[in-house]
Amino acid sequence: MGKSENAIVVGGGIGGLAAAIALTRRGWRVEVLERAAEVGESGSGISLWANGLRALDALGVGDAVRGAGVVEIEGGIRDRAGRWLSKTDTGELERRYGPLVAVRRTDLFSILAGALPDGVVRSGVAVTGIGNLEDTVEVTHITGVCEADLVVGADGIRSVVREALWPDARGPRYAGYTAWRMITGPLDFAPSGSETWGRGERFGVVPLPDGCAYLFGVADAPEGRRYPGGEFDEVRRRFGGWPAPIPAALARVDPATVLHHDIYDLPSLTSLVRGRVALLGDAAHAMTPNLGQGANQALEDAVTLAAVLERHPVPEALNAYDRLRRGRTTAIARRSRVIGAVAQWSHPAATALRDTMIRLSPSSAMLRGLDPVLSWEPPE
């Protein structure tokens, strides 16, 4: 890398913090500019697959994340009556690739932020513009202007960085469905990890530490629709009569904590880099959550970016980053979108055919299908 270089990471989400850790560990002087007053996200959980955990190991925080989470020992898809359509062979999954770990997002953020030196993250600093200069990048924000040898745009699906330097890129597209996310209090039973598929609706249960669970409900809905009677009332109306353990788990939710977001993804870009600027995570390739790979891919991005910067000057390194990341993330995003479309089918004949196909598919086929995703290894 030569002289000590400085980087500005725009966005203090999972990908932004991971990029800051990876660069700091390689001697970069890093500053993270986060527009929100506080870094972190509460009210939901996250599943970290084997590829994401390998990335966290490369950042030096893998063991801490495993210690804060719970290994999922059962999972699969059920039909609307609660019958298993497909069970994940979690033992074989772990043998081949490593465990699947569920953790609260707040805990993951805490671990990532704690791995950075004091003063690296500047909260409440919104970036307003990017000047892509030849030798440095000029970043304008609400408190002034600064320059960096590298800028990482990790500021989410509605990225200011992408909008500034990719003005002709298509914006977020609505997937056609909306989602509610919530975390229960301690349960008096041990729930299995599962996703129950209905007609245009589905509901997921993910065990968390301390006897709690992360829940999510998904439903076809017009874009931007809100529910004056309350988000949790809408969740109970839709899912309160679904098979166990869903009603009992919902009974342990604080209605005030329910999060509601429409689901979007991004059309693929022709490049993830412009000069000395690289996009990362949702800013680069926001995807629907149907493969559980959004954050895992952001972690891969961060580790890959730092690795190529270790070997090459910035311009060449960013070209290598684009080659390594764009094709992979485009394929995973496309696959996630297709799975979501099938999962949200609502016509009775189509859903009956879908459920039958899932029931007849061997577990080994699912594992083979996951191999291109989970077999990723950090670059040397």
From TrEMBL:
Pfam families: FAD_binding_3
UniProt KW keywords: Monooxygenase, Oxidoreductase
Segments forming domain FAD-binding: 7-335
Transmembrane stretches, start-end: none
InterPro entries, per the entry: FAD-bd (IPR002938), FAD-dep_Monooxygenase_BioMet (IPR050493), FAD/NAD-bd_sf (IPR036188)
SUPFAM superfamilies: FAD/NAD(P)-binding domain (SSF51905)
Gene Ontology terms, MF aspect: FAD binding; monooxygenase activity
PANTHER family in alphabetical order: MONOOXYGENASE, PUTATIVE (AFU_ORTHOLOGUE AFUA_6G14510)-RELATED
Protein name, UniProt field: NAD(P)-binding protein
Organism encoding this protein: Nocardia aurantiaca
